[in-house]
Amino acid sequence: MRILLLALLSLLCISCASNEKARVTEVNIVDIKPRYIDDESFKRVSEYLTGKENRGKRIIMRTDASQRNGFYFVLILDEKIRDLPAGTYIEGEFYTPKSKDKQVHSFNLPAKLSRSKEIFIGLTGEDWISEDDVPAAWHFTIKSSNGDVLATRKSYLWSI
Fold this sequence. Notes:
Layout lengths: L1 H16 L11 E9 L7 H6 L8 E4 L7 E8 L11 E7 L7 E6 L9 E7 L12 E7 L5 E6 L6
Parallel strand pairs: 2-6
Antiparallel strand pairs: 1-3, 3-6, 4-5, 4-7, 7-8
């Protein structure tokens, strides 16, 4: 009887160890929600106590890390961010009122990823003029560390 229990326990341990979810090789950007977000919207109670920004489980990337006011694109994925391959980055291309030329920015995902499916990408600092301005067109590409395209999504006006 002990041998049978030991065998079952061993099989259970082996099956649990081999049940790790594989990294995704493709992801869909389900939706992108563009909106202006001011500095106060990011503050939490802990920031008033410590003076340090607390992002919680949110992934927030900005063109100017020292500025929080700006125009943000909330990318909503069909997979959890933590399942993306290590070294994944996002290329964002924008046409804004600031310039007639296209702005291009690259955003590296942090090493520690959350279980969330949302990524906040902000045009902040010198890359954004005021809360009344809205980008005319945008295009996002999510790439693995070796440059393979995992997902892409663009605004309607990007196609014109």
